[in-house]
């Protein structure tokens, strides 16, 4: 099974063109394996926060982080795209996007005509949900979501 194969996960995490990101991952299990592999969340966190099979299984999807796929009971925040994420997951997303931008900037200094670097530089930091450019990287605590998620836990 490729999902549990650490070598496969490491292979698909190799640097690419920086355009697809997590958006291309369709299966929640694969997302979780990738998030564990890159250190965004631990296997214990996913196990402890998993909403599958809890109670009657009717946890609203709005309480699940779109990046980490865990119940947002610890530190949910609203980003500039209007979506709520677990702070650690969205901060890691921003960090990876900033790494791509830095690499593009270095490439443009070496080769001002690098089309790939121009695309990455022009796109800026994207929302993981909408894939649109983020206006800023401000994060605002979402106390209502945290309270609801803690009540569900």
From TrEMBL:
Database matches in InterPro entries: Ubox_domain, WD-SAM-U-box, Znf_RING/FYVE/PHD
Domain U-box: 58-153
Domain of life: Eukaryota
Molecular functions per Gene Ontology: ubiquitin-protein transferase activity
GO biological process entries: protein ubiquitination
This protein's name: U-box domain-containing protein
Species: Helicotheca tamesis
């Amino acid at each position: 099974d490729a999902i549990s194969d650490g070598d496969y996960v490491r292979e698909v995490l190799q640097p690419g063109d920086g355009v697809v990101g997590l958006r291309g991952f369709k299966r929640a299990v694969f997302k979780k394996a990738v998030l564990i592999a890159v250190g965004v969340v631990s296997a214990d966190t996913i196990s402890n926060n998993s909403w599958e099979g809890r109670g009657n299984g009717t946890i609203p999807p709005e309480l699940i982080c779109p990046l980490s796929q865990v119940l947002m009971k610890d530190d949910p925040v609203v980003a500039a795209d209007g979506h709520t994420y677990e702070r650690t997951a969205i901060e890691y997303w921003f960090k990876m996007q900033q790494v791509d931008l830095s690499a593009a900037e270095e490439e443009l200094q070496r080769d001002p005509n690098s089309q790939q670097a121009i695309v990455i530089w022009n796109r800026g930091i994207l929302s993981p949900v909408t894939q649109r450019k983020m206006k800023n990287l401000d994060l605002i605590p979402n106390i209502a979501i945290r309270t609801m998620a803690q009540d569900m836990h």
